[in-house]
Amino acid sequence: MKNRTKRQLAIKQAILSGRISSQDELLHIMKDQGFELTQATLSRDLKILKVAKVSDQALGYVYVIPEGVNTENQRENSRINFLADGFRDLQFSGNLAVMRTMPGYASSLAAVIDNSEPYEIIGTIAGDDTILLIMREGITHSDLINSLILIMPKLEDKLG
Amino acid sequence: MKNRTKRQLAIKQAILSGRISSQDELLHIMKDQGFELTQATLSRDLKILKVAKVSDQALGYVYVIPEGVNTENQRENSRINFLADGFRDLQFSGNLAVMRTMPGYASSLAAVIDNSEPYEIIGTIAGDDTILLIMREGITHSDLINSLILIMPKLEDKLG
DNA sequence: CTTCATTTTGAATATTTATACATTTTCGAT
DNA sequence: ATCGAAAATGTATAAATATTCAAAATGAAG
Description:
Chain A is an alpha+beta fold.
C-alpha cells in the first residue's frame, strides 16, 4: 500500500543516515515524521527490509542494512547495482511508466523488477532499451518511484 | 582464556554454516561440542564477533557475520584466492608468527589479513616477502592457523 | 454496493537478547 | 605461593524484539 511503501523507504533511509540503536528509537523518529505505527509493525518492516543489528563501538548496537550477508546476496546485489547503471530516465503517461535504458539493458533490468514483484507494478514489457511498466491503479508517480528505489537503491540519485 | 578463543572460533564456524536462528539453538550446539557456557556469554561473544541476525526466507531469522571473511564479493574472493597462492610458509616464535610469501606478495596479503580484523591478531607488519603477525596473548598456534584459514580458505591445504 | 478473501496492523504477550551485579578465574608482581 | 587488579562468567533480570490473535483495511468478484 501507499503508506507501507513510503514507510519502509523512510525506515531504510533513517537506518542508512542515522545511528539507530533500537526499534523504540526508530519508532519515535518515524512518528516525528508523521507515520502512525507501532513497534510490532516496525519489527515486521525490519524483517522485510532485512535490516540487522550489530555491535557498534559507540552506541553498543546499531541497525544496519547488510551489504552482503552471504555471497549469494552479495553477488546479486552487485549485479543489480551494475544493471542500475544502465538506467537512463523515466517518464509517465497515465498509468504507464516508460523507463529508458542503455542499449541491451532493458530486459535484464525488467527481470530484476519483475523478480521483486513490487505491488505497485502489475507487469512489464521490455525491448532492447525501453521498458514499459504498467502501474497498478491508484498508484501515484511517486509511489512507483519509491518502489523502484526500494528495488534499486542506486536509482535514488537519478530519480530523486 | 584459551577456552574463550576456542569457543569464539567454534561460534564463528557454526555461524558460517548459516543455519543458526537463535542463541538458544547455538547454545545447544556449543554444549554438544563440549563447551560449558550460558546464553549470557553467548550474547557477549556474538557482540564481540559482530554477529548479526537478519531475516531469512527459510528459517525466519539467521545469524550472519556481516562484514569480513565470507562476505566478500566474487571479485574480492578471487583476488584473495590469487593472493593466497603467494603464501610460502608460516613459523612461530612466542607470540609472533612469521609468514613468508613470494616476492611482492607480502603487503597485499597482510592487507587482506588486516582487513578482516581477526581477533587473534593484534597487528601485522609487512615487508616485500615477509609478514610479521603479532598474536593476541593467550592465542595458540592452532588458533592462529584456524583464523588464517577462515580468512583464506585456500591456505588450508598448505597449513593443514 | 455487498460479500468474501487477503493483507495489514495494533494490543497483548511470548520469546529472545543484553546487562547489572556478584562471583570466580586469570595473570602478573611480589 | 600470595596478593591484588583485571578479565571472564553465571544468575537473575531488564530490555528489546518477534509473534499470536483479533480487528480493521483493502482488493477482487459478483
